[in-house]
Amino acid sequence: MNQKLEDILQLALQTPEQTRALTEELNVGFDTQARTWELIVKYHGSLEALKALGIEVEYLIAGYAVLTVPEQLVERMVELEEIEYVEMPKRYFYDIEMPTDNSCIAQVTLRDPNLSGAGVLVAVLDSGIDYKLPEFRKSDGSTRIRFLWDQTLQPEAPAVDGAGQEAGDGATGDSSPARDGATADAGLAENADSPDRSDSGSSAARPIRRPPAGYRLGVEFDSAQINQALAAPAGQRQFELLPSIDSSGHGTAVAGIAAGDSPMYQGVAPEAELLIVKLGLPDAASFPRTTEIMRAVTYAIRKALELQMPLAINLSFGNTYGAHDGSSLIERFLDNAAEIGRTVICVGSGNEGNSGGHLAGSLLQEDDIAGGRPGAGIPSGSADGIPSRIGPIARPVSVELAVADYERTLNVQLWKNYCDTYRIFLRSPGGQETQLPAMISGGKYTLRLEQTRILVYFGKPAPYAVAEEIYFEMLPEGRNYINSGVWTIRLEPLQVVTGRYYFYLPSAVVRAAGTGFYQSTPEVTLTIPSTAAKVISVGAYDSTYEAYADFSGRGYADANRTIGVVAAGLAKPDLAAPGVGIIAPDIYGGYTPVTGTSFATPIVAGSCALLMEWGIVRGNDVFLYGEKVKAYLRAGARARRGETAYPNSRVGWGGLCVSSSLPG
């Protein structure tokens, strides 16, 4: 297979569709009806030649695009010189005191300088929003949402008049790509603050429902359309005018924490303007995937450039698949996106800290004493009776994985340094054991232990990553569930330079409670894409105890890690915010306590809006965006109880404190 394809995509393409459909990851991005793959590519030049082959191209920013490729054309597409690297989408999972009660926010909002986020755009890319709630409306009842893009709605085909021209409101249907920094959506915002359109009760009263310019999926609503719906009678007519709903309430809570405002509730930046993207749903589990996130980030940045507003983006979800080293396309994409316009991107570190889904270690053990192990006596030739020492010794390691009853499928990732060579043995709960072969042509290998079939893929370093991956996908054979009990993976050294290994399981959301590694490693459990270097990665602490919340994904404190950006000394998370029992608006018109890094992140995103209002909108520092906002937040962070050194893997530089983060 072509080395431009990531390892898991190569395994998916070599696996029959019927088998892929049984797994959690291998069929993500495949449309069973259209027989097409949705793929993410890093490219240079132009991809227009692909359109002649029937491949749909959606240009993003910074040299990234989303392709919809007929299954039989994937290998041919990769041969195009302009294609640099290809990944399949990954599923992402949603990562509860009033949000302004802590984090030194009241000190800058209730007294001088009386910040409110005015003039700043806060983008919430999530499960949608209940736009009818008072928290998202101005004092006159009109909406504070500038644009709402619901990726799950079906666009309408425009009516065509006798001259072959589109009839209706004249909105542009341009699907041409926008260049970096270009206003691809120009013209759509002209009516953003126009008077409400009259509700005549006829279908002609509303414009044709279309996606944003340059996109194929979903429907975009501007503030005039939202106001039209707000003015309509509640119920069916209101839903007909604006049928976007937040069925889970996750996005509504996040938006309320970041920027809600009503007589009963106030978020962090109550006068910020909102841009909402309801992310597309790949399956019944209702979780977004990589391609929808990348589209949404591109959309938000283009809108901010069009509106000439500073932008704070909130991403409250993550995924455990990957080396966690900044090398995947979503991580690299966000690093590029963070440098476009006056942008800050805040990402939650996830809730995998105590889930048992990660284990790391080394085959290189503590120093031996020359001539024998410690306690074996004084070796001959030692001076003055003091044993001489030799370097670390590579020894086999057995990794034990508990698999709970009723697991339908489970995948395991092993990441290692390509310089190291191990023999790998896999043992089932019933005692059957097999040695995996050395690297084989094509990378794929299938084995059976008891009633479990295991697909194994041996990866190679990629053009953007030095780590080597060995991927295991466990499927039931002749029954509904894989074998439960203790599975053992034994690593035996052949040629060892670093000796390091890193195991990851899927998110705890899709694992049974009893499935996890014995003696798991809590470090480097932050989820992707909070691992991107130029985003603000947000952990959670419990404000009741002023201490780290143990579910919060931990970052890089592994001095021996030898792959990716971690080896260069990058520290994550950047800081922590309250993430336990945060009161947030719910979709039933009330308020609910919520817990998780999903809800710590909008506290930081709203705080970024406050800083950018002070700096950019008020002219105190027109360059206060991007990495500069991160630097100010780090500098102002406060110590948390139980933490002795900073930065660390739990709370980064400390707990959020907005008043201390403002210079001067």
Give a written overview of the molecule:
There is one protein chain. With 664 residues, the chain is an alpha+beta fold. The chain has 3 domains: 7-87, Alpha-Beta Plaits (2-Layer Sandwich); 91-156 and 251-354 and 523-664, Rossmann fold; 358-366 and 392-517, Jelly Rolls (Sandwich). It is built from 13 helices and 31 strands. The strands form 7 sheets. Strands 7, 8, 9, 12, 13, 15, 27, 28 and 29 form a 9-stranded mixed β-sheet that branches. A hairpin with a 2-residue loop joins β21 (444-449) and β22 (452-458). α9 packs parallel to α10. It is globular and about 70 Å long. Mean pLDDT is 85; it is low at 159-204, 282-286 and 368-383.
User: Based on DSSP secondary structure assignment, what is the total number of beta strands?
Assistant: 31
**CATH fold label of the largest domain:** Rossmann fold
Helix content: 10-25%
CATH C-level of the largest domain: Alpha Beta
Radius of gyration: 26 Å
CATH architecture of the largest domain: 3-Layer(aba) Sandwich
Mean pLDDT: 85
Major β-sheet profile: 9 strands, mixed
CATH-defined superfamily of the largest domain: Peptidase S8/S53 domain
What is the tally of helical segments? 13
Distance between the termini: 57 Å
Strand content: 15-25%
Structural class: alpha+beta
Shape: globular
Uncertain stretches: 159-204, 282-286, 368-383
Total domain count: 3
Give me the secondary-structure topology.
Layout: H1 7-14, H2 17-20, E1 30-31, E2 36-43, H3 48-51, E3 56-59, E4 64-70, H4 74-78, E5 83-87, E6 93-94, H5 106-109, E7 121-126, E8 145-150, E9 219-222, H6 223-231, H7 236-241, H8 250-259, E10 261-262, E11 265-266, E12 273-278, H9 290-307, E13 311-315, E14 317-318, H10 329-337, E15 343-348, E16 358-362, E17 397-403, E18 410-417, E19 421-427, E20 433-435, E21 444-449, E22 452-458, E23 467-476, E24 485-495, E25 500-504, E26 516-517, E27 536-542, E28 547-548, E29 575-578, E30 582-585, E31 591-594, H11 597-617, H12 627-636, H13 658-661
Parallel strand pairs: 7-12, 7-13, 8-12, 13-15, 15-27, 27-29
Antiparallel strand pairs: 1-2, 2-4, 2-5, 3-4, 6-14, 8-9, 10-11, 16-25, 17-24, 17-26, 18-23, 18-25, 19-20, 19-24, 21-22, 22-23, 27-28, 30-31
